[in-house]
User: What shape does this take?
Amino acid sequence: DNNSSSSISSKVVVATVVVVVFVVIYHCCFRRSGSSSVISNIIAVLEEVVVVIAAAAAAVVVVVVVVVVVVVVVVVVVVVVVEVVIVVVVG
Assistant: This one.
Protein backbone atom coordinates (compact mmCIF):
# COMPACT_ATOMS: atom_id res chain seq x y z
CA ASP A 1 0.00 0.00 0.00
CA ASN A 2 2.77 2.42 0.96
CA ASN A 3 4.63 1.93 -2.32
CA SER A 4 1.52 2.34 -4.47
CA SER A 5 0.46 5.55 -2.73
CA SER A 6 3.95 7.04 -3.00
CA SER A 7 4.21 6.11 -6.69
CA ILE A 8 0.78 7.66 -7.36
CA SER A 9 1.73 10.88 -5.56
CA SER A 10 5.07 11.00 -7.41
CA LYS A 11 3.22 10.57 -10.71
CA VAL A 12 0.90 13.44 -9.76
CA VAL A 13 3.90 15.63 -8.91
CA VAL A 14 5.68 14.75 -12.17
CA ALA A 15 2.53 15.40 -14.23
CA THR A 16 2.00 18.75 -12.50
CA VAL A 17 5.61 19.80 -13.09
CA VAL A 18 5.38 18.81 -16.77
CA VAL A 19 2.17 20.82 -17.23
CA VAL A 20 3.63 23.85 -15.45
CA VAL A 21 6.83 23.74 -17.53
CA PHE A 22 4.80 23.32 -20.74
CA VAL A 23 2.57 26.31 -19.94
CA VAL A 24 5.55 28.49 -18.96
CA ILE A 25 7.43 27.65 -22.18
CA TYR A 26 4.26 28.15 -24.25
CA HIS A 27 3.61 31.45 -22.50
CA CYS A 28 7.16 32.71 -23.09
CA CYS A 29 7.07 31.73 -26.78
CA PHE A 30 3.78 33.51 -27.36
CA ARG A 31 4.92 36.57 -25.41
CA ARG A 32 8.08 36.83 -27.57
CA SER A 33 6.18 36.40 -30.84
CA GLY A 34 3.70 39.14 -29.89
CA SER A 35 0.50 37.23 -29.21
CA SER A 36 -3.03 38.55 -29.58
CA SER A 37 -5.05 39.43 -26.49
CA VAL A 38 -7.24 36.33 -26.93
CA ILE A 39 -4.23 34.01 -26.78
CA SER A 40 -2.87 35.94 -23.78
CA ASN A 41 -6.20 35.58 -21.98
CA ILE A 42 -6.34 31.86 -22.73
CA ILE A 43 -2.78 31.42 -21.43
CA ALA A 44 -3.60 33.47 -18.32
CA VAL A 45 -6.61 31.23 -17.62
CA LEU A 46 -4.45 28.14 -18.21
CA GLU A 47 -1.87 29.47 -15.76
CA GLU A 48 -4.56 30.01 -13.12
CA VAL A 49 -5.85 26.48 -13.72
CA VAL A 50 -2.31 25.11 -13.42
CA VAL A 51 -1.81 26.97 -10.13
CA VAL A 52 -5.07 25.50 -8.80
CA ILE A 53 -4.09 22.02 -10.01
CA ALA A 54 -0.62 22.37 -8.46
CA ALA A 55 -2.14 23.50 -5.15
CA ALA A 56 -4.59 20.59 -5.24
CA ALA A 57 -1.80 18.14 -6.07
CA ALA A 58 0.31 19.52 -3.21
CA ALA A 59 -2.68 19.19 -0.87
CA VAL A 60 -3.23 15.59 -2.01
CA VAL A 61 0.44 14.76 -1.45
CA VAL A 62 0.35 16.35 2.02
CA VAL A 63 -2.84 14.45 2.91
CA VAL A 64 -1.34 11.16 1.68
CA VAL A 65 1.84 11.73 3.70
CA VAL A 66 -0.14 12.68 6.83
CA VAL A 67 -2.40 9.62 6.47
CA VAL A 68 0.61 7.32 6.02
CA VAL A 69 2.36 8.84 9.05
CA VAL A 70 -0.78 8.58 11.19
CA VAL A 71 -1.32 4.94 10.16
CA VAL A 72 2.31 4.07 10.93
CA VAL A 73 2.14 5.82 14.33
CA VAL A 74 -1.15 4.09 15.21
CA VAL A 75 0.24 0.69 14.21
CA VAL A 76 3.42 1.26 16.25
CA VAL A 77 1.42 2.41 19.29
CA VAL A 78 -0.94 -0.57 19.04
CA VAL A 79 1.97 -3.01 18.72
CA VAL A 80 3.77 -1.45 21.71
CA VAL A 81 0.60 -1.47 23.83
CA VAL A 82 -0.12 -5.10 22.91
CA GLU A 83 3.45 -6.11 23.75
CA VAL A 84 3.30 -4.28 27.09
CA VAL A 85 -0.05 -5.91 27.92
CA ILE A 86 1.33 -9.34 26.99
CA VAL A 87 4.44 -8.78 29.14
CA VAL A 88 2.34 -7.57 32.09
CA VAL A 89 -0.21 -10.40 31.80
CA VAL A 90 2.35 -13.14 31.16
CA GLY A 91 4.91 -11.73 33.58
